[in-house]
Amino acid sequence: MKKNINVVGAIIIKEGKVFCCQRGLEKSLPGKWEFPGGKIESRETKEQALVREIKEELLISVQLEEKEFASVSFDYDFGRVNLSTFICHLESGEPQLTEHLQSKWVSFDKLNQLDWAPADIPIVEKLMEVGVDE
Ligand SMILES: Nc1nc2c([nH]c(=O)n2[C@H]2C[C@H](O)[C@@H](COP(=O)(O)OP(=O)(O)OP(=O)(O)O)O2)c(=O)[nH]1
Q: What are the residue boundaries of the Nudix hydrolase domain, all occurrences included (predicted)?
């Protein structure tokens, strides 16, 4: 059985664009684009994990929408990633990268131009299809 890796990702939206991050080259899935976030620690809720990860990775506070946007499971060779995503709004400040190679604000119609981590593709497709009200 594959190891389950429970992960949360933030879909941060501002002025009709989504904040997308590129993974470091020394990481698993090197150079792939993803939603910032990370693994849920024991005794944390998904929401707590996401707020913590975004503070650590981007040095900002975000407000999460209550309902999950989408979740997917994807089998990588290193394990099964169960990824849950939430729409987030910036409370203040601009994201600052502490881990990622680069980041971009991308409009919904151009999201599929990035080379996403495979698990993210259905989520990106849903975002492009339904968009998000701000
Ligand atoms: N944060 C995030 N992780 C994602 C996404 N899509 C996706 O497959 N993942 C994978 C990559 C990692 O295997 C895992 C997230 O864990 P992490 O962010 O703590 O991973 P990491 O690279 O720091 O650690 P590691 O995988 O090198 O052990 O989920 C996504 O959109 N956001």
A: 3-129
Q: What CATH number is given to the structural domain containing 54? A: 3.90.79.10
Q: Full-prediction pTM beyond 0.80? A: yes
Answer whether 2 contacts ligand 1 (Cβ < 6 A): no
Among residues 76, 74, 84, 5, the alpha carbon closest in space to that of 39 is found at 5
Indicate if the pLDDT at residue 3 is higher than 70.
yes
Which residues lie closer than 8 Å to 94 by C-beta, 6 or more apart? Answer: 60
Q: 69-78, pLDDT tens digit by residue?
A: 999 999 999 9
Q: Domain range spanning residue 27?
A: 1-71+86-104
Nearest CA to ligand 1 atom 18: 38
